[in-house]
Each structure stands twice: as structure tokens, then as C-alpha cells.
Amino acid sequence: MNRHDPEGAIGEAAKAYSNWGRWGEHDRLGTLNFLDEGKRRQGASLVRRGVSFSLAQSFDVNGPQKGWRRRTNPVHTMLDTGTDAALGTQGFPHGIGGADDVIAMPLQCSTQWDGLGHIFDHGRAWNGRAAEKVVTSDGDLVTGIEHMAPYVAGRGVLLDVGRVIGADGELPDGFAVTEEHLTATAEAHGVAVGRGDIVVVRTGQLARARREGWGDYAGGPAPGLSFTTAGWLHRAEIAAIATDTWGFEVRPNEFEHAFQPLHQVAIPNIGLLIGEMWDPDALAEDCAADGGYDFWLTAAPLPITGAVGSPVNPVAVK
């Protein structure tokens, strides 16, 4: 890998690991095609104790966003309150009152999925489509994330790389997680990763941010997947992957003068669904305690028509 030639490395990986045409010219799901009915039955069979864990961060003004590309933290506003009801100003009969609220936020400001229309490679979107014909001011006209809403539920696998590879359960910022790290972690957990799995990678960065403050969590240095994992992401035939970091891949990126090169291969070329800013910490503690690192996972995006990303509350059940 020539660190001075990101475009060459991206082009080589895009050609080697492309899934264009694999599921037909009209495909809208990418690697979610690997998550079939059999894989969902397998995932459902993993529920033993019935304990559940939310893998979502909070959606509030205390989140990590600092305004990069107009990404802000959620703003929650009440439209009707208990005070309105108590004062009798709502105009309802027989003493009934209620509360209503509204939230304004970028769709990728907290725990979220990157949809297939989120990243382009040299003007091409997923499956080789022209980017300008896929995503316009009206939204993603072809691969809007609403098409994925029924399908993101199945076997989840936690790879707690922070616990296995890192010191004190955390990887330092700038640590590049390689295929070897992922494989060693899976072996340490006694779990296999394969076709149709939803993989959750814990680096420990979120735990550190909670302890020390957000700092540059949103967009700054972070542990994450190495660009060299593109081959593993393709060969493993996983349905989706998510991390506890802002950007999924290692930051600073491994090339000079580059920005998120693994995204450029994984989303428009592999067709991979990527989750960011997930919170696997409580789940990781339970997995370490009982030794089981696979579980039923449901993580449906909101069916927002034409959206290129979506907030999500992933729920793991063991």
C-alpha cells in the first residue's frame, strides 16, 4: 500500500472488491442481500436469557457534534406540555391533556447507518450508477434508506477489539485495526464471522470519550478499520458492520491527503451498510461475563424516503 497514492489504492481495491451487478442492475440493498431468512432464523435462535441491550447513544444537545458540514446535535422542543394541560389552555374536553414534541437534527448526528447513497466513487454510486442520477435535491431517488427498513435484523456478532488487542480495554486514537486483529479477536471470543452477519466492532473510543469528554470524537483522530480490511469486508460476505467511532475507519487516514478512503471502496463498490457511533459497551460487558459474542440484533433504519442515512436504536438480545 503506497501511502502517497490514495487514488491508486482506492482504484485497485474498488476493482478487486466490486459487487456491481452481483444482485442485478436494479439492486437497492447491497450486502444486505446476504442477510436472508435462514440467517434471521439463526439469529433468533440465539435468544436464550432474554436480556436486551440498546446500542444507541443518546440523541440530545450534549452529543459529540461540533458543526462540521452543518452537523449539529439534536434540538428537542416541546410543543405541548403538562403546564399547558394544567392551565387548561389546550382546549380539550373532559379534563384530558397531553404533551407533544418535535426534534430537529441531521440524520447522522448520533448512532446511525450510512446508506448506499451516502458516498460516491469518482461520480459513481452503488452498482455503478451515475451519482447525479441517484441523489438529487429530492433525495436518494434509487437507494433511499427506506428500502432497507424491513431487512436489518439477524445474527449480530461483537468483535471487542479494544478488549482483546488494546490496553485496559481500549485502542488508542490512530490505531489501524487490520484483518489480523479482527481474526484474532474472533478467535479469542470463540465466534465465527460469516455470510449475512451484522458485525459490531468495539474499539473502546466511546468509553474514553465518556470518561474524558467528547474532544475531537466527531471527526478527529480515532481507532478504526484499516484500509487493508477492504478485502476481508468483501470476502466475509457480512451484511453490515458498525463501530463505536465517528467514522468507522482509522483516523488520521492511512494515506497522505486522503479523506475516508475505505468508505469510498466499501459503500459504492462493495455495497456495504456501515454503522457509526454505536454504543456496545454494556453489551461487551455482558459478552465478557457469559462468553457468548453472538446474539439476535435488530437495527432497522427509519424509513425516511430518499434519505442517505438514518438514526437507529440497535437492540441486541441474548
UniProtKB/TrEMBL annotation:
Q: What is this protein called?
A: Cyclase family protein
**Pfam families the record matches:** Cyclase
What SUPFAM superfamilies does the entry give? Answer: Putative cyclase
Q: What is its EC number?
A: 3.5.-.-
UniProt keywords (A-Z) are: Hydrolase
Going by the entry's taxonomy, the superkingdom of the source organism is recorded as Bacteria
Species assigned in the record: Streptomyces broussonetiae
Which GO MF terms are attached to this record?
A: hydrolase activity
